[in-house]
């Protein structure tokens, strides 16, 4: 598994604004926020993309969502609402190849989330 900026954050080799940590995951504020609240929840285990999630990761991936909801409740925006997104590979805009949930909140979030005209 190749080293990413997120594995360096896990090892505290580079700084991040960490808001939550437990045995399995870490959450920190996104360096380039797209909403008033924008943080990432990442597993401590390196998994490059959604395509690389294996059956043995079932509980770990569920845990990321539970952590996201826990933080949302603690920070007080759970009832108001929020969006959780995980991008996979180039067309979805994935830039860091260590899976991560984007958690966005703090303003009405448009749908669909992309700005390009959809060609179907
Ligand atoms: P994605 O494009 O889905 O792979 O998302 C990667 C996210 O990581 C982007 O929203 C970046 O702004 C964010 N990011 C990259 N480097 C850092 C960093 N050092 N600390 C916090 N967020 C970062």
Automatic annotation (TrEMBL):
Renumbered ranges of motif Histidine triad motif: 98-102
Pfam families: HIT (PF01230)
Domain HIT: 5-114
Active-site residue numbers: 100 (tele-amp-histidine intermediate)
Cited InterPro entries: Histidine_triad_CS, Histidine_triad_HIT, HIT-like, HIT-like_sf
Keyword Heme (UniProt): no
Keyword Signal: no
GO molecular function terms noted in the UniProt entry: hydrolase activity
Organism superkingdom: Bacteria
Keywords: Hydrolase
Protein name: Diadenosine tetraphosphate (Ap4A) hydrolase and other HIT family Hydrolase
């Amino acid at each position: 598994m190749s080293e990413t900026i997120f594995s360096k954050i896990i090892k505290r080799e580079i700084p991040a604004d960490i808001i939550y940590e437990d045995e399995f995951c870490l959450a920190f504020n996104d360096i380039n926020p797209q909403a008033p609240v924008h943080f990432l929840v990442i597993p401590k285990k390196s998994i490059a993309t959604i395509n690389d999630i294996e059956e043995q990761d079932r509980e770990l991936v569920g845990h990321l969502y539970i952590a996201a909801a826990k933080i949302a409740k603690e920070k007080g925006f759970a009832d108001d609402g929020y969006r959780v997104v995980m991008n996979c590979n180039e067309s979805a805009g994935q830039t860091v190849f260590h899976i991560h949930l984007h958690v966005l909140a703090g303003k009405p979030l448009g749908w669909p989330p992309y700005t390009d005209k959809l060609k179907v």
